[in-house]
Write a structure and sequence with these properties.
This protein has 274 residues and is α/β, with parallel strands linked by helices. The chain has helices at 43-48, 76-94, 110-122, 141-144, 154-157, 163-166, 186-191, 193-206, 223-227, 245-255; strands spanning 2-6, 51-54, 98-102, 129-133, 168-170, 174-177, 210-214, 233-239, 261-267. Strands 1-9-8-3-7-4-6-5-2 form a 9-stranded mixed β-sheet. Mean pLDDT is 81; it is low at 1-40 and 269-274.
Length: 274
């Protein structure tokens, strides 16, 4: 797995052919949440109410995707730590907090990247991170972390459950909003005012420095494009063995006028590992 061509602090993309902008054609990017403006219950109390599912993430033969950053001694962890540093620098420079991770097609490693980036961030004790599975058609982060019976996300996004009833915590500074049930009408749910309100309230109550949204592939449905106006920046994951130039050009077209492209991750560039 290799990291290539990360964007600079201004959100401009360094990959050839990609154009980015700071506003969505669907409207303004939602403003970042400030720690001086909680807009809800005390964030320490809200954070502490989340259920701790583990002191550390699980990995091993039962996990569907190997979590590299569970093991800092793994050389590949260095790549995710570098990605973490560049993402944090861009977010902090611009006052942003919300990052979408997507890919051209399924199987490129977007969930793998989202999970490992979140774990890398969680190793920084002063950074709180929330990771949200918004691949509503094919949720996979629960399997990635090898966590069972997480519950359906639909009631939470509809405003029928409190964060403490649905979210988990791993350790002291990583919150997981997972899903184990595909959602029918996923595009409508991602654009529904209730969903937007719930996710904004979640950020206002927990006040994570970084919120990562794991989104579906861009070229297989319009779910990701529908949600992008709600984030501050986009991280695109491509696959060294399957993503071709035409797919990248189509992603370029879809991202034109969307929030800035923070960088491009080239996954499985050498060994094809998941």
């Amino acid at each position: 797995m290799q990291m290539l061509k990360m964007g600079d602090e201004g959100g401009r993309n360094l990959a050839d052919g990609f154009r980015t902008a700071g506003k969505s054609r669907r409207g303004e990017v939602a403003p970042p949440v400030s720690r001086a403006q909680t807009g809800g219950p005390d964030h320490e109390d809200a954070w502490n109410k989340l259920r701790i599912i583990a002191d550390a993430p699980k990995f091993g033969p039962d996990a569907r995707i190997r979590l590299i950053t569970c093991r800092p001694e793994d050389p590949a962890s260095v790549a995710f730590d570098l990605l973490r540093t560049r993402i944090l620098r861009t977010l902090q420079t611009n006052g942003w907090s919300r990052v979408a991770i997507t890919s051209p097609t399924a199987g490129c490693g977007a969930s793998f990247t989202a999970a490992n980036l979140a774990l890398s961030l969680a190793r920084l004790p002063h950074i709180r991170t929330a990771l949200v599975d918004l691949n509503l058609r094919a949720p996979g982060l629960a399997d990635t972390f090898n966590i069972r019976k997480t519950g359906a996300i639909e009631p939470f996004l509809a405003g029928k459950m409190l964060p403490a009833q649905h979210l988990f915590r791993i350790g002291q500074n990583l919150a997981l909003c997972l899903n184990d049930t595909p959602v029918e009408g996923s595009v409508a749910m991602l654009q529904h005012p209730n969903t937007i309100r719930v996710l904004n309230d979640l950020n206002r109550s927990l006040l994570p420095q970084v919120t990562i949204y794991d989104l579906p592939p861009m070229l297989e449905a319009d779910d990701a494009e529908a949600f992008l106006p709600q984030v501050d920046g986009v991280l695109l994951v491509s696959d060294g063995g399957r993503t071709d130039a035409d797919q990248l050009r189509e992603c370029e077209r879809l991202l034109n006028g969307q929030p800035p492209l923070l960088g491009v991750v080239l996954n499985r560039a050498e060994d094809g590992a998941g």
